[in-house]
Amino acid sequence: METPRPPTGCVVVGVDAAQPTDRALDWAADQAALEDRHLLLVHGTGTPLTVGTSWSGVGGPDPSQMFSDLHSAGRALLARATTRVVTRHPELVVHQSVRTVDPCRALLDASADAALLVVGSRGRGHVLSLVLGSVSEEVADRASCPAVVIRPQHSYEARRGVLVGTDGTAESQPVLRFAYRYARLHGLPLTVMYSAWDGEDATSQHVVPDEEPSFDWARARLAASVADLAAQHLDVSTTLVIGRGTPAGCLLTVADSMDLVVVGHHERGLFGSFAHDSVAVSVLEHASVAIAVVPVAADALVAAR
Question: CA 147 from chain center: how many Å?
Answer without folding.
Answer: 3
